[in-house]
Amino acid sequence: MTATTLDPRTALVVIDLQRGIVALPTAHPADEVVARSARLAAAFRAAGLPVVLVNVTGVAPGRTDGGPGGSVDFPEGWADLVGELDRQPSDITVSKQQWGAFYGTGLDMELRRRGVTQIVLCGISTSIGVESTARDAYEHGYHVTVAVDAVTDTDAAAHERAVATIFPRLGETGTTEDILALLPA
After folding, report:
1. What is the CATH number of domain 10-57+81-182?
2. Higher pLDDT pick, 59 / 168
3. Domain spans, the chain
4. In what residue span(s) does the Isochorismatase-like domain sit (predicted)?
5. Strand (E) positions, the chain?
6. How does residue 72 score in pLDDT terms, banded at 50, 70 and 90?
7. CA–CA distances in Å: residue 91 to residues 49, 63, 159, 171
8. CA-angle at 144, arms to 41 and 44, nearest 5°
9. Please, are residues 126 and 98 in contact by the beta-carbon 8 Å criterion?
10. pLDDT per position as a tens digit, 120-153
11. How high does pLDDT run on average in the chain?
């Protein structure tokens, strides 16, 4: 379903736009995803709406092989958020050690404290961090919107499946411009 509305208390949740992940080869240029996400973050801040910056700092507890990426020892700076996001003191920062941003973090509590009823998602990877967070948000009762031109994946087919099949079942989708047009002036 195309994005039609934003709740008065909508938060932007930016998934894993960190140095180690944006450096990976992606289906769509990561720099474009970063630029669109940064535009959304600036607009949400200007509208007085919460911005959540999520990074992944490790692997799920109990996992010792590091998963598909190999080692659990990430290079220095790997988890650092990209500077283009212009992190502000008012931003909420969430560090996770699994795919989704809800499990094992304080994200739900931070959103509920602020009266948030809807989230807009952007970031990398579409089929992993973004999709997992979208599913969890839906299950937590949030309205979900995904900025489909502000997400990408290392796997083009997985990206397309999430955008075409999964996200429309969880909520609404739209472009960065669609979402910016729905923000309060």
Report:
1. 3.40.50.850
2. 168
3. 10-57+81-182
4. 10-178
5. 10-15, 51-56, 92-96, 118-124, 143-152, 172-174
6. low
7. 10, 30, 27, 24
8. 20
9. no
10. 999 999 999 999 999 999 999 999 999 999 999 9
11. 93
